[in-house]
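Fig. S4 source data, part A: sequence.
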Amino acid sequence: MEAIAKTKYLKGSPRKARLVIDLIRGQNVSRALSILKFTQKRAAQPIAKCLNSAIANATYNAEQMNIAIDPDDLWVRACYVDMGPTKNRRRVRPAPQGRAYREQRHYCHITIEVTSDEKPKTEKELKAEAAKAKRAEAKKAEPKKAAKKDAPKAKKDEVTETAAPTEETVETAPAVEETIETAPAAEETVEAKTEDVAAEDAAPAVEEAEKAEGETEAETK
């Protein structure tokens, strides 16, 4: 539901009235009325009357259309101040260096539009919603990241389990070295046996040689 209220030929310059009208633009009706109540400007009271008139027009239009409306749901969609006529007064005010300035009395027109439609979201609200969406996505992505982190750990455990038997084979390597070290001892035993056999084979020849020497010595005597 929409409604418009206008105040024409309000005393005061439009520049001063715009300072007040800018405070209530886009605000809720109740908040706008409270702002105008505590604003110490001469244009605040007439603007509040215009706003109340806009609220009354909205409720009246809703009754005519047989629509239920809550005045607290209304908000100020548009409000602006137009320049009015200046009173043609033949008066002047003294100015420096003997000059005179013409005295002018300004008037302005105020227009306020209220509506009960959904209020568009501001940039701050949009940024806040985007931040919330990012946080929600991050929370959803956390379990996936945790699963990815656990997968390499499981792979490492498997690698360590498979590496254990290799360590055992490495530990058994010294046994081979011992066998290699014992090989020279076996060679020594073989050499000793060959020497004993050679000595046994040479013993009869030595005895025969000794006997022959003994016989030769006896013959010479």
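Fig. S4 source data, part B ends here. The helical segments are 14-24, 29-37, 44-64, 123-220.
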